[in-house]
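for the writeup, i need someone to sanity check this before i put it in the appendix. the sequnce is what the collaborator sent (i think, or maybe the updated version? ugh). structure was predicted straight from it, no edits. if anything looks off just tell me and ill rerun, i have time this weekend
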Amino acid sequence: KWYSIPQCWRYERTQRGRGREHYQWNVDVWGMDGLAADAELISVLVHFFDSVGLGAGDIVVRISSRKVLEEVLGSLGISGDSFAKTCIVVDKMDRLPADVIEAQLAELGLAAGAIGTIQSVLSIGSLDELSAALGGDSAAVGELGALFDMIDSYGIAEWVEFDASIVRGLAYYTGPVFEVADRAGELRAICGGGRYDKLIGTLGGKDLPATGFGFGDMVIMELLAEKGLLPDLDSDIEDVVFGMGADLQAAAMQVAAALRSSGRSVDLVLEEKRMKWVFKHAERTGANRLVLVMPEEWAAGQVRIKDLASGEESTVDIGEL
């Protein structure tokens, strides 16, 4: 089990919930081919959403399996490169009109009957319907049934639903796949992932069972902002120290060091700035006090302190800091 939160970039048009730069939370389980790992990932996601104040009425985890599409396309004789290209088109079903999807599938050489079969199966919204369409001995149906049973064991069944249209556009997925969306359907997918048992082998190593998800920060921030759930993150800075002029920079460093030694959290202004900027900076950081190292006071062995909550100012001996 591992996770990472890297800073990511992509070269594309900026739009709501999708920028050229973002942070992404990745969680993966390697070396385990059982569905317990996939269920655990869903549980991790639900635990996160619950911890930030979102509920099952706000969020839905839509789950399917790449094996559903494999069985449908396999029955139509579609495989290899055609399979990968079809996945890319099908992944857009919830974002493009049906006639556009039909046209793109037709461009891949699929007959009208095949396109109709794909659209029909991928519009299924329950496992019972899927079983009727693929047959009770379907590997996809069996896999999904077992996964949903495990999810129920976590007590999070109200957060998830089956959606055959979830296929994920990347060709390396091999089993369960999922995407998280807001219930209102107003935003892009919040995150997504699935099982990719053969990806490492394609990169030159040995095949290794693996499953995981990628969770960018942009869409979830949009949703939390709409719900009024963005946390008020304090900077924890207690004192901002500023020396008036280059001649007092060393003195300001001395004051900052003394305050830090006493256990206070200090932000030392390193550049020459106007007082107006310094006051605004202290307010922006949420500091408690502004400690000013001024020529006359410093010559007398003192500093000027402004309490930013009350606005009161006082002069304090350096030894009493």
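The chain is about 40% helix and 20% strand. Residues 36-51 form the longest helix (16 residues).
thx in advance!!
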